[in-house]
User: Fold this.
Amino acid sequence: MAVERTLILLKPDALQRGLCGEVLSRLEKRGLQIAGLKMIQLDKAKCDEHYAHLVSKPFYPKLAAFMTSAPVVALVAEGVDAVNVLRAMCGPTNARTALPGTIRGDYSLSTQYNIIHASDSLETAHKEVARFFKKEELHAWKRAMDAFTAADDEKK
Ligand code: UDP
Ligand code: MG
Assistant:
């Protein structure tokens, strides 16, 4: 399994509810490494680009209003199999069906206000990381405690 980078957005509900630190802390404690981190105010055009697969859906106007209502915290999480690991940590889109222990299952009861975005495939992750981060905003660094993370034995 390869080391991957995936795009995470902590959505405006995470900011409004003061949950950014807790969610970020979960990723760090899991052993994922932060490769990039910043706050971004999405405009309608950027939101349309990010959710291009959803712009024709009836719920999209409300989703766009929500996503542009406050800044998001954007980060790039890095680790072995990071795309799948993050999707599993988020839980399903409809937070009411998300299991306790997942981010959505612990912090949300909503399909729209579900706290977090995570890239849904490695191909999407490549596109989404490039959409939100310039090369110089991404950092490769060696984690001193790497020997104690669960995935260390799989790293080449
Ligand atoms: N969404 C919504 N209503 C729906 C489906 C999705 O408001 O019926 C929102 C929700 O915030 C979701 C986002 O649109 O996270 C993107 O939808 P997607 O199907 O890509 O879900 P995700 O990948 O975030 O689980
Ligand atoms: Mg998605």
Notes: Strands lie at 3-10, 33-40, 72-80, 116-118. The mean pLDDT is 95.
